[in-house]
Amino acid sequence: MSITDDQPTHPLPELDEIRHRYRTERDKRLRPDGPDQYIQVKGSFAHYMDDPWADPEFTREPLHDEVEVLVVGGGLGGLVAGARLRQQGLDSIRFVEPASDFGGTWYWNRYPGISCDVESYIYLPLLEEVGYVPKRKYSYGQEILDHCHAIARQFDLYRDACFQTRVTEVRWDGAASRWTVETDRGDEIKARYVCLALGQLSKPKLPGIPGIEEFEGHSFHTCRWDFDYTGGNQEGNLTGLSGKRVGVIGTGASGVQVVPHIAEWAEHLYVFQRTPSSVDIKHNPETDPEWARSLSPGWHQHRRENFNALVSGVPQEEDLVDDGWTDLIGNLVRLFRDGDGVDLSPEGIQRAVELADLQKMEQVRARVDELVDDPETAELLKPYYRQFCKRPCIDNDYLPAFNRPNVTLVDTAGKGVDRITATGVVVGDREYEVDCLIYASGFEVGTPLSQRGGFEIIGSQGETLMEKWADGLRTMHGMHMHGFPNLFLMSIGQSANTVNYTHILDEQAIHLSYIVARAREIGAVTVEVSAEAEEAWVDACRGQANNRGFFEDCTPGYYNNEGQARNSQNGPYGVGPGTIEFLQLLGDWRADDELTGMELRCEQSPRGGS
Ligand code: NDP
């Protein structure tokens, strides 16, 4: 069987054959404890979350004052919320953020090699507003962090920010129609509105490997890289690792980016692999200044919408980003264009999509053979699952790192590391002794918001948000909760998810800032989703299929809740084409200008939204 032009030269395997292979690989990895296999970073691991960039001497007097909007979280979500609120004329905005500056993910994650593999021209938000065009197609971490700071400066968000401060409680004060926000610095801040921008992949997690607390060597998580130990910086040069035996547990997007740098400096590097990542080529040209000059107003939104449509499976006239994320749909379009007698029934289309996916993954597997000298190692590094089952990576140095004599791939046949001892890592009947163990084991996904944020939110009925959600998420648009007036949540649950997550964050920011501005215009003291509107949205979410079948067949990972299907009530309203539908729905809702489903309370004459 072969399907299109300029693609792999060898015939593709039969679909039945590859489905069987994928299923076998998935089944090897399924385990009864699913997401519970991970442990929280606390207790004897709490120091993994210390802030290496904070000022240990920092101190200030507690605040007892009032602001219009308090934003919890100074990452990209909080920044776009702050910027959009400023654009709506909001003057009094305070950020509360545990780090010592803005940046969120890009503040915490500074490991060597860090970069974003979603194109910079669509990932970095507010480019036109800030007047910036990124330096290359894919930004390194430092450029993104610099851009976060530029957004904060541009929109004057530093003015009232409280860094190195953790929220400890958010409680509704009905008498004052304000939120009271308490922090670990003794602050008691009143806020008319609170926006929760806590991030999605913000709290690191560790694998619950037996013996993990027994290790006596040096260890840390990639999200707080220990440059004091390794030397060097985000560009590498890890001189501190010379003469050291290093183990890396985790071969996801973070593992793929750090491995080449460790390989260059460590005496020996053991990479412990449970599931191979799909690692495609990274073309990362510098920005063409002529192209940058040619951009006309609106280009940024147009480009990210074009990308979102393509990765959602909606063909477009042109593919502006044209990279590994969008070429699956490119393969599909070619198939329909060139294929003789392509079957356009739903089954036919599904089969075509599967073939395009297979073609892509065969390319990725062929690349492993091209770049890895030892055929046995190459075979172990090949991903056997569909392209979007796991986060695909792009990198040119990861696979060749395994050709170095000082690098050993320790494959665990899908089972993971067996045990950690005082001196090393055990897989099968062998212990690999290491001086340093680096966890590239990812972040909590789907754990309770209060666990990730570290505080409770207590609404108008004295109920915590977690109590309200005891039987599943209840929101409207993923953002508003009945019983929690003037509170906005920026998240994925009952909202939407897409490859370019900052796109969703910005749309949420535009939406919530519109609501705040509209409520102010009307003179409303509170704006709160009605119980009925919330119920209707929860029902709509329950009805969304959200690629459930696709993810059930996938190898486990955080995308599919480690192989244990998520209750659709807790998932996004929209993924894939559902994302486009969701964004359209939010836009239409604003265009109506009726605040449909919201109840407003005004000081003089209360009135409900329609
Ligand atoms: P991931 O959750 O993607 O990866 C965790 C890794 O740890 C997986 O390889 C996992 O294996 C492995 N692991 C877990 N338990 C064990 C065990 N017991 N034994 C051996 N291995 C184990 O985390 P990342 O930090 O890599 O990435 C998280 C997300 O952050 C990405 O998906 C992406 O969204 C974002 N990111 C983006 C980057 C970019 O744009 N380039 C860079 C870094 C992060 P298994 O796969 O089998 O579960």
Question: What would your notes on this structure say?
Answer:
The chain is of the alpha/beta class and about 600 residues long. The strands form six sheets. Strands 2, 3, 4, 5, 6, 18 and 19 form a seven-stranded mixed β-sheet that branches. A hairpin with a 4-residue loop joins strand 5 and strand 6. The N terminus and C terminus are likely disordered. The chain has 20 helices and 22 strands. The protein is globular, with a radius of gyration of 25 Å. The site of NADPH dihydro-nicotinamide-adenine-dinucleotide phosphate has 28 residues, from helix 8.
The CATH architecture category of the domain at 66-203 and 445-541 and 570-608 equals 3-Layer(bba) Sandwich
Structural shape: globular
CATH secondary-structure class of the domain at 66-203 and 445-541 and 570-608: Alpha Beta
Q: Low-confidence stretches at least 5 residues in length (pLDDT < 50)?
A: 1-6, 606-610
Main sheet specs: 7 strands, mixed
Describe the structure using short key phrases.
alpha/beta, FAD/NAD(P)-binding domain, 7-stranded mixed sheet, 5-stranded parallel sheet, 22 strands, 16% strand, binds NADPH dihydro-nicotinamide-adenine-dinucleotide phosphate
